[in-house]
Design a protein that fits this description.
This protein is an alpha+beta fold. The chain contains eleven helices and 26 strands. The chain folds into three domains: 127 residues, Immunoglobulin-like; 191 residues, von Willebrand factor, type A domain (Rossmann fold, 3-Layer(aba) Sandwich), CATH 3.40.50.410; 100 residues, Tumour Suppressor Smad4.
Length: 465
């Protein structure tokens, strides 16, 4: 991965491509999570004047959005795209979700001149103070050898203050720094949060992975070592902006690249007094964002470059984001490619619907293996009690059995399907469940939901179709 000099970081933070004396625009985030459903990509932008003050009076017509395949110059090859939704600076009605990710490795404790772990907790508390009674949510996670969520995103500030005190100097085997792995894990922790999501990272150094440095298998990742590209891809996929604060003797320049590539900033802090107010500054910056929803073109590329330009071309900013499957405005000559991408998904939906339509009303709810491994289709009726789904391992077939039967094998990864007191079917697992490609600890099932179990897909039918 390309290294970034501190001079470049300084320039990226304080300057953009514009004329002297004109307003400057910065793209601070791209969220394309729901583009396949809505046909809209949300862009977040900040505009400042030549003194660095926020400009909050612009309208949708003051912005132009263009996109092109990543690697090309959007200004040369891109087509202008329609802005279909617009929220002015500072007028967003929903809250912002912040996840504070704090380095809890061995090097954070017992340092000459101050305990960096204590400083990180102090700044986190100050940040919580700044949230006040707003709708903003905050979460807290620590990382060393492992990633630990102390509190998922919430508006309850009291529980967050309490859990900030749970960090303690780690044992030697827990003292490594899985910097990039923690960002991948944090992206997953924020996956189901709606709206604007920000990851604030506090670390004193560089990636120091367990397997690579100890020669032993990681207790969770085995022999896998996460790279900076893994962290960046996870954040971009989820549309999360990273703000990274480094305070310590070692520097991981890839961290700056990740932050800037997601639209965030990198703060290289050398003295304790420089930490004061940084977290609040980040929140104020996010609150000042304009949100522009635009209808993208189908670039045919895995990654898209989007450029937002202020009226008159006085300033512009560019970010890349993963294209995925985009139902937006077709680019010239790409209608055939759009059809090729859409057809498999349409066929899958029709197949699921055909399975549901053939059932007679009044039949019991059921689960059906849609893509069976190791045998033909298997359907299980859900009549009462719990049903356990045990994902197959190493190519073995997934099993679905009533809880308490002789074949009941409940272990790690087992999915539990049961009816609640209101008559709704739900699914849960200690290791999380993936329904309709969304992961959560538990979820209420709706007719036609697709459950991922190991290598197989299972369709839920509520019996009322």
């Amino acid at each position: 991965m390309r290294k970034i000099t501190m001079l470049f970081i300084f320039a990226a933070i304080f300057f953009s491509a514009g004329t002297v004396g004109a307003d400057e625009i910065t793209l601070s985030g791209v969220d394309s999570r729901m583009t396949a459903v809505t046909g809209i990509v949300n862009l977040y932008a900040i505009v400042t004047d030549n003194s660095g003050r926020i400009v909050d009076s612009l309208k949708a017509e003051d912005f132009t959005v263009m996109d092109a395949p990543a690697g090309e110059n959007p200004g040369d090859l891109a087509e202008t795209r329609e802005i279909v939704s617009f929220t002015s600076s500072g007028e967003r009605r929903e809250g912002i979700t912040f996840m504070m990710l704090i380095d809890d490795s061995g090097s954070m404790y017992g340092n000459p001149g101050g305990d960096r772990a204590a400083l990180a907790r102090r700044e986190a508390r100050n940040f919580l103070d700044s949230l006040g009674n707003s709708m903003d949510k905050a979460g807290l996670a620590l990382f060393g050898t492992r990633y630990r969520v102390l509190a998922g995103p919430r508006t309850d500030r009291a529980s967050l203050y309490e859990r900030l005190g749970l960090s303690a100097p780690p044992e030697p085997e827990e003292a490594y720094t899985e910097l990039f792995a923690s960002m991948v894990e944090a992206s997953d922790s924020l996956r189901n949060e709606k709206g604007r999501r920000i990851l604030i990272l506090f670390s004193d150094g560089e990636n120091y992975p367990y397997f690579q440095r100890s020669g032993e298998k990681h207790p969770e990742y085995s022999e896998k070592t996460f790279a900076a590209d893994d962290a960046l891809a996870a954040l971009q996929k989820e549309g999360i902006t990273l703000y990274a604060v480094r305070f310590g003797p070692r520097r991981d320049e890839d961290l700056a690249h990740i932050a800037l590539s997601t639209g965030g900033l990198f703060f290289d802090v050398n003295a304790e007094e420089e930490l004061s107010g940084l977290y609040s500054l980040i929140r104020e910056r996010v609150q000042a964002e304009y949100r522009l929803g635009y209808s993208p073109g189908l670039t045919g590329a895995r990654e898209t470059s989007v450029m937002v330009e202020l009226s008159g071309g006085s300033s512009s900013a560019v970010l890349n984001y993963p294209s995925g499957l985009v139902f937006g405005e077709p680019s010239r000559g790409n209608q055939a490619l759009l059809s090729l991408l859409v057809i498999p998904f349409v066929l899958l939906i029709l197949f699921i619907l055909s399975r549901l339509w053939r059932k007679k009303p009044g039949e019991p709810a059921s689960l059906e293996r849609l893509r069976p491994v190791g045998g033909g289709n298997l359907t299980v009726a859900l009549e009462s009690g719990k049903t356990l789904i045990s994902p197959g391992i190493a190519g073995a077939a997934t099993t679905m059995t009533p809880a308490g039967s002789k074949t009941d094998v409940q272990g790690g990864g087992t999915l539990i399907v049961e009816k609640d007191k209101d008559g709704r079917w739900s699914i849960s697992s200690d290791e999380g469940v993936v329904v309709n490609n969304r992961k959560s600890e538990s979820t209420v099932l709706e007719n036609g939901d697709v459950i991922k179990a190991g290598e197989e897909l299972i369709v839920f039918d509520n019996g009322e179709s």
